[in-house]
Design brief:
The protein is of the alpha+beta class. The protein folds into three domains: 48 residues, Ubiquitin-associated (UBA) domain (Helicase, Ruva Protein, domain 3), CATH 1.10.8; 98 residues, Elongation factor Ts, dimerisation domain (Tetrahydropterin Synthase, Chain A); 39 residues, no CATH class. Helix content is 49%, strand content 13%. It has a three-stranded antiparallel sheet. α1 crosses α2, α2 packs across α3 and α7 crosses α8. The chain is flat. The N and C termini lie far apart (45 Å).
């Protein structure tokens, strides 16, 4: 069975609007075949498939978090489809929780994998390849991929487990976003953020 790549999961998610974990499971079941995975998702989700992803997320909220010391602050924009959901307490609370998470995660620089510049990803891969040069040739690509995934986990917001792991049962930001999207029936999108720290 071939290993499911994060880029394939993201592409399937974008095409179908299904949750990240659903896409990953479907690709695993389909042995990496995107068309077959789409069929699996169609069976599972029926007429819901594609509807969320196709809807424009033009409403939303900008929320902030300032650390108690006053030395770190974050602004985050989270979008949805309707102003009704944008004013929803749970939606606003989600945006605030994201801002708090980013404040506690200084390495976070991108919202999703697609925002990582190709040249930066390639530069990291070259460094990791050098670091893995002493490993047996057969396992080297897997070692490099593992190092790259670890770097992406540290820098890409949606891949990260929320810092309040106990409260959110170890779920990633993407999983929490998927949960809120399913609950509201809207396309919830973390669009952008800025993190400010004194002296940086």
């Amino acid at each position: 069975m071939s290993e499911v790549k994060a880029a394939d999961v993201a592409a399937l998610r974008k095409a179908t609007g299904a949750g990240m974990m659903d896409c990953k499971q479907a690709l695993t079941e389909a042995d990496g075949d995107a068309e077959r995975a789409t069929e699996i998702l169609r069976v599972k989700m029926g007429n819901k498939l594609g509807k969320l992803a196709d809807r424009e997320a033009a409403e939303g909220t900008v929320q902030s978090y300032i650390h108690a010391t006053g030395t770190v602050g974050v602004l985050v924009e989270v979008n949805c489809n309707t102003d009704f959901v944008a004013r929803n307490d749970e939606f606003v609370a989600f945006a605030r929780e994201i801002a708090m998470h980013i404040a506690a995660s200084p390495a976070t620089r991108f919202v999703n994998d697609d925002q990582v510049p190709a040249e930066e990803r390639e530069a990291e891969e070259r460094v990791f390849a050098e670091q893995a040069a002493d490993k047996p040739e057969k396992v080297r690509p897997k070692v490099v991929q593992g190092m790259l995934d670890k770097w992406l986990d540290e820098t890409v917001l949606l891949r990260q487990k929320h810092v309040n792991a106990d409260r959110y049962e170890g779920k990633t930001i993407e999983q929490l976003r998927d949960d809120l999207s399913a609950k509201t029936g809207e396309n919830v999108v973390v669009s952008r953020f800025e993190r400010y720290a004194v002296g940086e």
